[in-house]
Input
Amino acid sequence: MHPTKPTGKMAYNKLVASIELAMELQASSTGLTIKQMMERTDRSRKTVERMLAGLNGLGLEPQLSLVEGDHHLTKRWHLDGIPLSFLTLTPAERSALERHVRMMPKGTTRVGLTKLLAERKPLSKHLAIDQEILIERAAHIGKVGPRNKVDEELMSILEIALTGFEEIRLLYQAATRPTATWRTARPLGLVFSRFGYLVASSGNRPPVTYRLDLIREALPTGTYFRPKSNWNFKNWVSESFGVFHGDTSLAVTLRFNSRVAKRADSIEFHPSQRTTKRKDGSLVIQLTCQGHRELIHELCHPDWLGNVVIEAPETLKSEYLHYVEIKKEAVR
Output
């Protein structure tokens, strides 16, 4: 039985994978080990070794890179000389990087990425306008921890709908439902935290959130809508402590004891917060927000547990105690 010859598409995919590996090798200042290449390409050792040999066949010759401190048997590979045509950013890539930079905190990483973008050709005016719309309709709620991968094809459909104010059909399976159902939605924005969420409305109903990993399919409808002039996405996001809305806004007062007061004072828990330092070294933070469940999750963080007191309101105290009772189920 003869082995199957690679089709044109298979050969093209292998070529793309090899060029992507070449870019990884050139982007790394110290070079990459075989193990690191396996992790970045999600391929076996034999496949990575074949890809390295293939780069030699393309005239791109990876060189051994020595790094002080490595074990004497460790081999790293580095590459120089990839043609500039392979390194040109596509409009979609530049657009994604610009959005990422605008949402990054100030610091060395943001400055460095900004310099790299400044060296490149800017987006066309038409694409730049779409870019601004997406930036205004996306919010990142920074949390360190597990994150879900987002399907690129789905994101492309959602971004086009967001910039064009187009209704979409969603096949959505809620976490508590056994099957997925179709619904029509008007995309209003994207929120990224531990999960990614689409914020959308239906007719005159208040906006709701759809977890991106639970959207099984999204289809453009060709029907367009006019967003409400008195509704602002960024303002809506800032009303909640986290992603979720729908509960009532509460005026919350938290007191952090002197052991963690300095750390708490360096953090912005919510845009509405006001802080007061007390003579005993404690810190009082007052804020008004929805999203009580996520606020309770934050107060249960190891940094604050045993070091923070909910002074008001009583309803939040009750919710917290109820949450503690539910957590006890994990140790029964």
Observations:
- The chain has four domains: 8-85, 90-136, 139-238, 239-331.
- Residues 325 and 331 are 11 Å apart (CA to CA).
